[in-house]
Amino acid sequence: MSALKINIVLFGIGNIGSTLVRQVLESRAFFLENYNIDLRFPVITNSTVAFFEKDGLPHQWETNFAQAAIPFQIQDILDYVQAREFDNLIAVDATASWSILEHYTTLIENGFDLVAANKKANTQSFEFYQSLREHLAVYQKQFLYETNVGAALPVIKTLRNLYDSGEKITRIRGVFSGSLSYVFNRFSEEEAPFSSILEQAEQLGLTEPDSREDLSGQDVARKLLILARELGHEFEFTDVQIQSLLPTDLPTGLTVKQYKNQRSVLDQPLRCSKIAQAENRVLRYVGQWEVAQKTLEVKLISVPKNSALGQLKGADNLIEIYTTSYQETPLVIQGAGAGKEVTARGVLSDILQLAQQIKTRSAIWI
């Protein structure tokens, strides 16, 4: 029996997208042998140009992309896959772009399932969020985005499984940022100034290029919003109360270079928070959703050193899920919550999940 060909249109070849392609190429023989599935990339794009390869990607795809990619519109991609009668289509959004969101419904209408590392579709207005799901239902397509929260950690899947089994979720709390996990884990144990540890996190590539994006708390807020919406709550982003780590005396409008020269203003307020704690406690920057109170908060808290949050190391994420069954001792999901390798692997896991479902549907139709 010939292998089932899955045709992936990849949007974005930054850290996650390019790592995803490499992982697929390295494991292609494994997927063929174990699942009888052939993952192919007939189209790969960045923000301005696309590379069209009807026979799938060779290992030297970067060279081919550089030499043969051409400017494109979304209709060019649709025309290409339709002219060649490609089926089993999956669109993968590995960008951080807002503009690609306007094409999601067009892709669905033209036979694509969706996989996204990009969080923006799930943190737009609730009207957009709901409309997208109605579109998916009409065209019987799926949208998977496990990597939106916790990279490759099975946070969304676990939460959905609990909810779908009738479990009542009462609270979700956790460290959702790998960069801030790293910074506060070290800051709690060392005497080094906060800004010094932050600078080292930047040099390791753990933060955004402008670490104010991490310190603002907005990324943590987006992840918390996604989890709340997964359980059917119609929250907007403005409903999340965010305690930014950026001090009020840090001027707005600074360039990245100017900001880096003034990072020391972070040190005093955070040192005060550190020394004001009771003994054997540490600081953690968390997202917290109290379901009954309908409160979504991103804030700096002090926790016991011997607690699950207090024992975090490295850049790990840790999410606590409290339910009627896990009331006193929460269900804890912990592991690497950032990095191109784990995030790309999470995207690949979503692709394979869709591929298996497509394979099952194909077998039924036959």
Give an overview in words.
The chain is built from 13 helices and 13 strands. The strands form 2 sheets. It has a 7-stranded mixed sheet, sandwiched between helices. Strands 9-11-10-8-12-13 form a 6-stranded mixed sheet. The chain is α/β, with parallel strands linked by helices and 366 residues long. The longest helix has 26 residues, at 340-365. It is globular, with a radius of gyration of 22 Å. Strand 12 and strand 13 (331-336) form a beta hairpin. It has helices at 15-35, 61-68, 74-83, 104-109, 126-139, 155-164, 178-189, 194-203, 212-215, 218-230, 256-261, 267-275, 340-365; strands at 4-11, 37-45, 49-52, 70-71, 89-93, 112-116, 143-144, 169-175, 240-242, 281-290, 295-304, 316-323, 331-336.
Brief characterization of the structure:
The chain is 41% helix and 22% strand.
Mean pLDDT: 94
Structural class by sheet pairing and helices: alpha/beta
Q: What is the overall shape? A: globular
Encode the helix/strand succession as letters: EHEEHEHEHEHEHEHHHHEHHEEEEH
* Arrangement of strands in the largest sheet: 4-3-2-1-5-6-7
Topology record:
Layout lengths: L3 E8 L3 H21 L1 E9 L3 E4 L8 H8 L1 E2 L2 H10 L5 E5 L10 H6 L2 E5 L9 H14 L3 E2 L10 H10 L4 E7 L2 H12 L4 H10 L8 H4 L2 H13 L9 E3 L13 H6 L5 H9 L5 E10 L4 E10 L11 E8 L7 E6 L3 H26 L1
Parallel strand pairs: 1-2, 1-5, 5-6, 6-7, 9-11
Antiparallel strand pairs: 2-3, 3-4, 8-10, 8-12, 10-11, 12-13
Helix pairs in contact: 1-13, 7-8
